[in-house]
Structure formats: structure tokens, C-alpha cells
Amino acid sequence: RLSVCRPWIASSASPPRNDVFFLKGKHDTMARQSRTFVCQSCGAVTSRWAGRCEACGEWNTIVEEAGAAGGVGAGPAAKTLQGKGRKIELVEMSGESAEPPRYVTGVGEFDRVTGGGLVPGSALLVGGDPGIGKSTLLLQAMAALANKGHSVVYISGEEAIAQVRMRARRLGLAEAPVQLGAETNLKDIIGTLEGRQAPDAVVIDSIQTMWADNLDSAPGTVSQVRASAQELVRFAKKSNTAVILVGHVTKEGQIAGPRVVEHMVDAVIYFEGERGHQFRILRAVKNRFGPANEIGVFEMGELGLAEVPNPSALFLGERDGGTSGSAVFAGIEGTRPVLVEIQALTAQSTLGTPRRAVVGWDSGRLSMVLAVLEARCGLSLAGQDVYLNVAGGLRINEPAADLSVAAALISSITGTPLPSDCVIFGEISLSGAVRPVSQMDARLKEAEKLGFTRAILPGGAGKSRSGAGLKFTEISDLAGLIACLATEEQKGSKRRRDGDM
After folding, report:
1. pLDDT computed for residue 231 by the predictor
2. DSSP 401
3. I need a labelling partner for 201 at 20 to 30 A (CA). Which of 29, 234, 253, 385 fits?
């Protein structure tokens, strides 16, 4: 039933000739295009714009995006499932399962982080700061894989083919049989890959530049990143191709885009490093086919990234053992023991609120150690500026570094250098007690291999300890650490007096 609506009526006079009539019925003649507001930080969807996202708390991250008419990323108006689906095959969990085959690239540190090589049909997400070396690393790994006879495709959405060739020529990889492509349209990319024999590995650089034409939003938005990642992961599973996605990171160090992308892929790898250091750390934070938190160490040079088979020797290569505020920590990164130097500096503060600057460690953990030292050991740190640094650009996440940090702080406050041949590790509780840590044998073996002769470690950590050439000093609380360091200072003073005589 239709009704005529007149928007303008002047008293009893007839409507003018240019009057406009609107037809109003039960159904509109044109459907409105659905629009939603999506947070570009966490991917939360709202029905209206707001200055602050209620899900993640970020400001000015909500952007209006058009909903898709169908397919990937369709909004709430999408049709519900109808009819019966096909039956899937269910198997017993107790059945035999073989180890999945892998494509070993030959780049040892890259293969270590991925769990032994690329798994066919898997999807990897590699993130890192701009200019850190993501494209260089993947180009080297794919060139090594192609030289072994595997078919490899490198798709760049940020650079032209000529630019990729220039980088390959600079790295000495110009003769590698890697097929290159420069495209951002996702339909064209998948259509090209499906229209030929499926390659063994595909690199997409980067996922933020890809766009699906069934979405109205711009490339790099949450909808585009989510839809592009879902299509590429589906292609990887269907064609049994290892797909590597390159992702940009935000200023907080997280991969840009919705966190659901990290749930889609099989492995999430971060490429870390400081611009002032030549070292680069490849760290796996998620891996369905290998250990998480595994690291690979590279050194940036003129010919690209070179592997570092022994990172402990590299991190400790320029250490000055006669300086106060320096302690050697025996840590574990994934399955690999790594020895690094922790540097601490305390200085009298001229500010009302002293500074706490931390590089390579958790700032909240440092505040806890400082509070325990002041409350349990009587050290006055309220008026001191504290600076803490992990040498070499490595970031430490495990609590076993608490005792090394405390020893470096005590050494800086008292001006007493720690023994240069001693490693320190242990976790500190709020009561001031030192708690045991895991994988002590691996830590001590690595210290002994690098020429260390002493170790300060938690008391009662284990009956069997490797390293017959190491002298152990077990402590149960921070008071024992201070007493141990005071004893070492007395011995050092006596040796210096004997040398003068």
C-alpha cells in the first residue's frame, strides 16, 4: 500500500508545479548500506563512534567502515546457515600421528625459531619495526630454500620488482630461482597462485598492503587485514603451501591490526633489535609446530644478516669486568641458554620524583626489586635515579634475572665491582627470599663452556648440578647476597694490599 506525502502545503492553495512527492511503502526501494565503527587497535566493533575504545582503552582509534555485501567479513546482515552440511570424518585421538615434513631453508637460526623448518600448509606471521630487516631476512631464507630445489614465490605489496631485485643483487642472491611479483589485489594474487602448480612457500610483504575488493574499507584497516589474512590462511591449508605474512608493528611493539590475525596463523615471530646495535633477535611468541619463546640471533652486515651460532660469546665480547654495576646473567631463551650482561647505574637525583629508566627488562619488575631492597635490606633508593640496561639489545622476560639485577644495583650503590668470572641467577620474592629457577643445568653448562668459574644461585635448587669446574655459592635471601658481596670485597681488598706489598 502506497501513500503520498507532501512536504510543503501553503494554506488551501494547490501545490506548486515543482513540488516533490515521496513514495513510502512497506519496503524501501534501495537497501541502506550497513556501516560499522571498528577500533583499529583491537578490532572491536561498535554501532556508533566514540573517542575512546571501551575494549582496549585506546583513544582516537575508532574508524567508520562499510560492511561487506557478503563473503569474507560480512556483517550482521549476512544470511544464517541453512540446510544440512556434509559430514566430517572423526578419528580417535589415540591413533598414530607422524611428524609433519618440513622445508629446511639452511639458515640455521631461522630454522631453529620455526621449530626445524617450514611446515607445508602452515601460516607464519613475522612482525618487526620498519627497517629492522624483515624483508632482508625472508629474502635470504627464501633464496636458500629455492636453491635447494623448492618452488618459492615472493609477493611484494610495498616495493616494485626492480627494488626487490636490487636488494637481492646487493645481498648476492640475484641468481636464486625465486619468482617475484608486485601486487596488492588479493583476488589477483590468489588467482595467480591457484592457476598454476602450488608453490612450496609464498611470502606476502606485507599483509597491511593487501586489499579485498568485496570490502569498501581502505587497505590496512581492521576489516581488510582480517579478511586478507583469512583468505591467505585458507589458501595455505587448501594448497599445502607454507605462507609467510609480514606485518607492521605499532608504537607499542605489537603487530598492527586485530589480534584475531595472530589466532588465525600457526606461528607468530617477532624480529627485534635496536637501531644502534648490529644484533637482531628473531623470537617466536607462538608456534604450533615447535617451542615458543625460541630465539635466533643475527648480525647485520654489509651482505645482509649473518647467523650468530654462539650469542653468549657475542653479548659478552665487549664486557668490562672491572666496573661496578655490571653482572652476568645466565638466562634461558626457549631451549637455548644465553649469557648476557646486565648494567645498572644509580645516581643522586635532583628531581622530586627520581627517574627509573629501563632498557631490555620489565620496568614493573625493576620497581619490585627496588622496593624489596629498600624494605628488606635497608638500602636507601628513594632519592636515587636508577638506570638499567641489558647489553646487546636483548630483551629478557623471565623472572630468573631478579638476582642479577639486584646484584648489579648493590654493586652500583656500593661502588664494588662484582667478580668477572661469576654468573648470577635466581628469582626474588616479596619477602626477600631467593627462589629456585628452572633448567639450572643448561645455564651452568653454558657458563662453564664460556670460561666462568663461579656461580651465585638459589639455595636448595637441586641435588644434581652440572659443571664440575664451577664453584657454587648458594644464598637463600638478599641478605645473604649482600654478605657474599661484602666478603668478595674484603678478599679483593686483601689481594690488592698484598700486591702493593
Report:
1. 95
2. G
3. 253
**Coil, strand or helix at 329:** strand
Q: Which residues contact 205 (CB under 8 A, 6 or more apart)?
A: 134, 135, 138, 154, 155, 156, 157, 158, 159, 246
The pLDDT, as a whole number, for residue 8 is: 39
Amino acid symbol at 341 = E
C-alpha span between 391 and 388 (Å, rounded)? 10
Would you call 438 helix, strand, or coil by DSSP? coil
Calpha distance 480→221 (Å, rounded)? 55
pLDDT of residue 11: 43
Q: Phi, psi (5° rounding) for residue 279?
A: -85, 145
Residues of the chain where predicted confidence (pLDDT) is lower than 70: 1-34, 66-83, 97, 250-258, 275-276, 321, 461-468, 490-501
Say if CB 173 and CB 107 are below 8 A apart. Answer: no
Please, which residues bridge with residue 201 across strands? 152, 242
Q: Are strands 45-46 and 471-475 parallel, antiparallel or unpaired?
A: unpaired
Residue type, 22: F
Residues with Cβ within 8 Å of 168's Cβ and at least 6 positions away in sequence, in order, are: 139, 143, 174, 176, 178
Confidence (pLDDT) at 499:
57
